[in-house]
Amino acid sequence: MRYTILCFLTAAALLCCNLANAQDPQQKSPEEMAIEQANKLEKELNLNSTQLFYLDSILRQNYTGLYEDIENARARGSQDQQTYKTLSEKWMQKTFNALKGVLDEQQYIRYLKMMGKGKEYKKGKDGLYYLKEDLKKKKK
To answer: Is 0.85 surpassed by the pTM of this model?
Structure first.
């Protein structure tokens, strides 16, 4: 399930490494990476067409923003890995915030779990996610 976070961070790393080779025709654009990610999330989260439209738009916007921020950092001569990690986390948080308004509660929690977040949630016997503290209260 941490595949998605790895994809996001890998996309950031690829953008960093490949900026010097911008003419490489095999390099995927931020839009292409966003489309691939949206298609994967459509299946994983069982999105309806409206949700998919918004998710695709959000991912395109945020991947492009991440790409531009990384390009600007490189243009300033930054080679610090922490800078790139900070930029990636910034755009990941923007994605989380935007998707919170698009996904229903269970989809959002599944998304958080896929991204390696949402550790405060646990799946109940009914297959739905609950706050861990709420599950403990239910058992008592």
So the answer is: no
Nearest to 109 by CA among 85, 86, 131: 131
Q: Of the candidates 128, 107, 127, 109, which has an alpha carbon nearest to the alpha carbon of residue 119?
A: 109
- Chain mean pLDDT for the chain: 85
Beta-carbon contacts of 54 under 8 Å, excluding residues fewer than 6 positions away, are: 102
Q: Which residue has the tokens 């069982």?
A: 46
Give 100's Cβ-side CA count (13 Å radius).
Answer: 8
- For residue 113, what are its two tokens? 């779990």
**Gyration radius from the chain CA atoms:** 17
pLDDT in tens, 83-124: 999 999 999 999 999 999 999 999 999 999 999 998 999 998
Q: CA angle, 40 as apex, 35 and 46 as ends, to 5°?
A: 115
What is the spatial distance between Cα 46 and Cα 26, in angstroms, rounded to a whole number?
30
What element of type H or E holds 122? strand 121-123
